[in-house]
């Protein structure tokens, strides 16, 4: 198949600029400014919670947001750091340091570009919904657990990364700072109730503005004896943002006897998880956006854009990025309809980084914790979980297992096991739905049809047995079919018809088993006839060498020809 780059990489920006006008620019500019303001607290919070800092979060939102809008396959996608990455980023930094995070992020970007070039954009959409809900809910619970230190003002520095150990550590060292908890609770209430008052001002932005002003007033004018100075702000813990860092490569942190290539091997599972998360989240966001604006995104172009962003961002100290559903919907709701809105959103964040660094440093950590608690709540998907719980079918248990693996172990294990379970369940369902029927006396042609013709039943000649396979003929069914055939006497039924009119495909195991059946039947003096083989399956049988092992006359277009052929073979057998 000839490779056409335009089919896999053709940014939406190029498509929209040809018909661009001032009216659309005004709408995009307004949407971009609003989204940029909304992204400020989220970028800062995601950067800090990931184990880096506010500057890194903002830098990621600026550079990744710009590149995803420039080269992406969606008109309205807004890219940047998201909550889904917090858990895995924090784990990589704890184990491999910042250099390990950089290597893993670049590898993930390369994987995303490769997936786009290989046209795997549509395949990613087939990740089962229970797996997505399971690991997303697990991430939400993990994010929630990481915010308890700042929300209650515990002031702990060596909090374990493991979920269970973390909560044991909280319980052993719980000493709440009343002021920090009060500001965190105030911020949480603002996040909850602001959307009920107005949809124009995001709750997270209002919470940060009000909590920062309140903290500044208390620190400036409250008596020292009140102890308000113990409330930590971003500026107390991190270097304040002052501009885009110069491109750099962190010093490589290698263990004794370890080489760069062994480190790459160790980081590959984490890189694969980042790539999968980025692909799934960005394409889900693009699909949701398509439904709202009536457009169709290019999934392969979107993957390539995500990959480019994740290759470039680490050299500026940034963290993994992807399309963000909440910010994308904010863009749409405020009139954004082209990638220009995403570019303006990145420009707004750049202005914040350059000129408002001192104000960013005044934001209380308890307020950021409240913002992330709301992010975790939004991610949890608890309504979906409750709905699946009512049925408690196999999908629900896939969700539960994925959820607990995410929380107790890590995201890499959860995604791998979740996908494996989903595939096993799919095969089980397919196996259950494929039926094998054995017919000896007659065939009712009126079965499985809505026709009112009342066709005459077809008589099966004596000595002939008909097996009908209804569904895909793959390895599970092939083994079951072999078991059925092995218990039938060749003396009683010297001719066997395998009716395949409802077989959409066969796999290599089924082809092998069918070839073995034909060979074994030939030795036992049994003739196999295939009936109703469609063109696709017929081509597979031809490629698999099945036709060379049997008389071409024994592959019949339909059951009428097959029965006639079987009758002729029985007569010939009697005559001889």
Structure write-up:
This protein has 576 residues and is an alpha/beta fold. The chain folds into two domains: 13-222 and 258-425, no CATH class; 435-575, 2-Layer Sandwich (Transcription Regulator spoIIAA), CATH 3.30.750. It is 63% helix and 6% strand. It contains 25 helices and nine strands. The protein has helices spanning 5-8, 12-17, 22-49, 54-71, 86-117, 121-124, 129-146, 148-151, 163-172, 178-197, 203-221, 234-237, 260-293, 299-312, 325-333, 340-355, 357-360, 365-380, 382-391, 394-408, 411-433, 475-486, 508-523, 535-543, 559-575, and strands at 79-80, 322-323, 435-439, 442-443, 458-459, 464-470, 495-502, 527-531, 555-556. It has a five-stranded mixed β-sheet with strand order 3-6-7-8-9, with helices on both faces. Strands 1-2 form a two-stranded antiparallel sheet. Strands 4-5 form a two-stranded antiparallel sheet. Helix 24 (535-543) links the parallel strand 8 (527-531) and strand 9 (555-556). Helix 22 runs parallel beside helix 23 (508-523). It is elongated, with a radius of gyration of 31 Å. The relative contact order is 0.15. The model has no long low-confidence stretch (mean pLDDT 86).
